[in-house]
Amino acid sequence: MRTNQPLTTIRNLGILAHVDAGKTTLTERVLYATGTTHKRGEVHDGTTVTDFDSQERDRGITIFAAAVSCAWDGHQINLIDTPGHVDFSDEVERSLRVLDGAIAVFDAVAGVEPQSESVWRQADRHGVPRFAFVNKMDRVGADLDAAVESIRERLHPAPMVVQLPIGQENEFRGVVDLVRMRALLWADDGGVEEGPVPDALLDEARRRRRVLEEAVAERHSAALEEFCAQQEVSAPTLASALRELTHSGEGLVVLCGSAYRNRGIEPLLAAVIAYLPSPVDVPPVRGVWADEEHERPADPAAPFSALAFKVVVAPTGRLTFLRVYSGTVQKGAEVFDAGTRKPERISRILRVQADRHTEVERAVAGDIVAVVGPKNARAGASLCARSVPVLFEPPVVADPVVSVAIETRSAADTDRLAMALLRTTDEDPSLVVRTDSETGQTLLSGLGELHLEVAVEKIRRAYGVEIFVGRPRVAYRETVLSGVSGLEYKHVKQDGGSGQFARIVLDVEPTDEEELVFQSAVVGGAVPREFVRAVEAGCRDALSEGPLGGHPVTGVHVTLTDGSTHVKDSSEMAFRTAGRLGLREALRASKMALLEPVSEVAVTVPEDAMGSVLGDLAMRRGQVSASATRSGTVTITASVPLAELFGYSDRLRSRTHGRGSFTAKAAGFALAPR
């Protein structure tokens, strides 16, 4: 699609929202409106472009982030449809790392929902400019003002509503563009007609235009100057100010529509071009090399640099998705993986349209493409020119909190399972495979039950491996409640030749820090500095398995107070061994406690089911922190141990006759009952 297109005409953006807010439907309508597709795909029919995976179509939700491209008004839009379920938040995280802008979609009835808030915070961390699209304006109970107020209260931006709905609920048929003061009306066949503001809405439109002008003038100096001089802000000044406020994050443009009924898509595309940044509008990406910081501007003539944000491993080959930050890369070129410090060959470059690909000769700064060739580059890898290397910060990978034990039905499938697990974890870094040292079981860990269920089903479908799955296990931790002082440990080994000798004295106490806090209080050089470092390394080794159940240990403060050496037999290895075995002995002598992972749960149920749901949460050791009532439903927020959430979705559906829903996100660890 792109041939020497200026960078100012490129938009790299994602669609963010709570599950079922209409992200995928909106993506389908964008593709249809831009002429990229000639038939509107539907989630309920399993005919969407971006939800192409068989599990996505079976479940009716987005699971994997999918990239598509389209053209509108001389601009190229590279769009990533992201998942809305909390179990797949890692897909959102990796996508946000490479995007320049985003559209936050909200349900006009529900307003800000739990996962809406989570993805909003993710976008905040990455500093991604965005505007809001209040969807489903045709639903019963749709209320733009209420949705905007929930955005203001829960997300704390400064909403700037640029449209006034024409018609309510099922009668919603258009909007008034408050910037240009023009009306847009949609026909049933999808055509749009522009005209003057209807007389019945003229006073309300003028009032809202005034509110918009005042909100912009408060935050933008040029708009304020014009407002003071002329008592109004012109359309060009208003549009320019809204663009700058969007880029800085000081203001949030709000549009509305109904994606399902194909209403509001054209103004949304115009807003993408008018308000969201191009690659040259965002600051140069920063990286490091040789302890020095380097910048890479969005310039096709600069040295090549790119970040791999997604890997797809299929039987037909391995695709690595790249955001090209600077420079140009040709098909057949050799690039440098700055993380592994190894070369990789780019054999093919592909433009991606969900599950369809078109081969191109090169990719330049601002592009999002897939490449074939790299064999070892994982999600988060920095690819660059060997002569000018740079290492970018990789996306943060969430720690897994739920595990299942998996095994094959027959020993003959063991090797195939190992290969399937390797490919699956290569695609999804938030999945972790390990072997339990005590039971010998293969454990697959992820971010939630659905996350693991999808991964297991993918192994069955894609790789043809029949496997048994055991009950999910939660990832417990151990911590110190009260420690010990002056514990002496002596490591002596003599079996011919050079021996090993190390004597250390440790104090162990609890700390609020998750990582090990280690310090040395040794005086007089009783333990040389290099041996102190070895003791610390040994202590870190000891924290991998605690005395209660072999779980990782957290919240430990260790002080090395004394020690002694042997003139011949002391070594770093001896002191590392002493640190490991000494701390294990100290932990056994300490008062330890088990920590269990806790989830923050938001349960939305009809008011008449509230009592039953609260009782069930209490049985699951849930602690309710808040509740809010709106439009006949109650949203209950509670902290619940993760171990108590297995099977909760089925129980909730049963208690609410299918009308209840819930989302959960990791909220740290808490003391487990004895």
UniProtKB/TrEMBL annotation:
Family to which the UniProt record says this protein belongs: Belongs to the TRAFAC class translation factor GTPase superfamily. Classic translation factor GTPase family. EF-G/EF-2 subfamily.
Name of the featured protein: Elongation factor G
Keyword Nucleotide-binding among UniProt keywords: yes
Keywords: Cytoplasm, Elongation factor, GTP-binding, Nucleotide-binding, Protein biosynthesis
Broad class of where this protein is predominantly found: cytoplasm
Record localization: Cytoplasm
Upper classification of the organism: Bacteria, Bacillati, Actinomycetota, Actinomycetes, Pseudonocardiales
Example GO molecular function: translation elongation factor activity
Function: Catalyzes the GTP-dependent ribosomal translocation step during translation elongation. During this step, the ribosome changes from the pre-translocational (PRE) to the post-translocational (POST) state as the newly formed A-site-bound peptidyl-tRNA and P-site-bound deacylated tRNA move to the P and E sites, respectively. Catalyzes the coordinated movement of the two tRNA molecules, the mRNA and conformational changes in the ribosome.
Organism (species): Allokutzneria oryzae
Superkingdom, taxonomy of origin: Bacteria
Amino acids binding GTP: 17-24, 81-85, 135-138
Gene it is expressed from: fusA
Every Tr-type G domain range: 8-280
SMART domains linked: EFG_C, EFG_IV
Entries under NCBIfam families matching the protein: EF-G, PRK12740.1-5, small_GTP
